[in-house]
Design brief:
Helix content: over 70%
Number of helices: 13
Radius of gyration: 24 Å
Order of helices and strands: HHHHHHHHHHHHH
Structural class: mainly alpha
CATH superfamily of one domain: MetI-like
Number of strands: 0
Shape: globular
CATH architecture of one domain: Orthogonal Bundle
Length: about 325
């Protein structure tokens, strides 16, 4: 019964996601072409003649009306062809895949830090409301939520890389190159910098959700029955507070992949965020469009996954 319901819900959401992606594709394509500058002169250089620019524009199909360009691009995307990068002269998906390893690993390691830091401290603060422990945790959370990630990153580089020499300060050689998984040490400092504000968010969310649940009547009943405090905390309070935290995890992971521009720049990481910045400067329309559309698909997929996980965690959750 549950499997049939989940399957039916997933099919409805996939249909809605297709409509959302179509609308997003129109917005992405339109806004990208409003960016000032001409990519042709980026490719040809400032010394290019108008005739050379016109020839290349016709070759790339940029001389067509914008709606024709959009329909051609959309038709190719539906066939899995996101076009070729104007700068790299490679398929867009290949260019994105080159940066995806760094961004996905960075986001994954960051989420590990977020879980290890945010949830335990949030639980500790929730079990001791109003105490010095709670106030200290809340104060630290507010501090790290408000400071810029590049500031945290620079101090991490100064302390762990420059002074102690424990970890590298920049770059990232692929785990598929020499060094293998040992190369993940290049992502420890940037993941910590990126985890600081997100761990603060999860800490605050865990604390507030657990405090809300702890005020419910069934929690008072459980305590009145003499159930051990740790069982009440873990089996009843934390489990029911987990729904809000899981929802935050989904959107946080998607945001980490698409919004790590500053961190990737500070640590000179070859990720998606840095690729977007470079592509905007180069007016590389196909890459910008491809990254944005892939990001939309990622958000929709994670949103669907989070809803299904919430349903499995608590069958009482209604999925419209």
């Amino acid at each position: 019964m549950l499997a049939e319901f989940v399957t039916s819900y997933a099919m409805r959401r996939i249909g809605a996601a297709i409509i959302t992606m179509m609308a997003a594709s129109v917005i992405i394509f339109a806004f990208i072409h409003l960016i000032p500058g001409d990519p042709l002169y980026v490719l040809l250089g400032d010394g290019a003649t108008p005739d050379q620019a016109d020839t290349l524009r016709a070759k790339l199909g940029l001389d067509q009306p914008i709606y024709v360009q959009y329909l051609v691009w959309l038709g190719n995307v539906l066939q899995g062809d996101f076009g070729n990068s104007l700068f790299f002269q490679e398929p867009v998906l290949t260019v994105i895949a080159d940066g995806a390893e760094t961004s996905i690993l960075l986001a994954s390691i960051t989420m590990v830090w977020v879980i290890l830091i945010g949830i335990p401290i949030g639980m500790l603060a929730a079990t001791r409301p109003g105490t010095i422990v709670d106030q200290s945790a809340s104060g630290l959370a507010m501090f790290f939520a408000s400071v810029p990630t590049f500031w945290v990153g620079l101090y991490l580089i100064l302390f762990f890389a420059a002074w102690l020499g424990w970890l590298p300060s920049s770059g990232y050689p692929s785990i598929f190159e020499d060094g293998g998984f040992a190369n993940l040490r290049y992502l420890l400092l940037p993941s910590l910098a990126l985890a600081a504000p997100n761990a603060a968010l999860i800490l605050r969310l865990t604390r507030s959700s657990m405090l809300d649940v702890s005020r419910q009547d069934y929690i008072r009943t459980a305590r009145a029955k003499g159930i051990r405090p740790w069982q009440v905390t873990f089996r009843h309070i934390f489990r029911n507070a987990l729904l809000a935290v899981v929802s935050a995890f989904g959107f946080t992971f998607a945001a980490l992949i698409s919004e790590a521009v500053v961190t990737e720049t500070v640590f000179a990481l070859p990720g998606i965020g840095r690729l977007v910045v470079q592509s905007i400067l180069r007016r590389d329309y196909p890459v910008i469009q491809g990254v944005n559309l892939v990001t939309v698909i990622l958000y929709l997929a994670i949103n669907l996954l989070v809803d299904l996980i919430n349903r499995m965690l608590d069958p009482r959750v209604e999925l419209d």
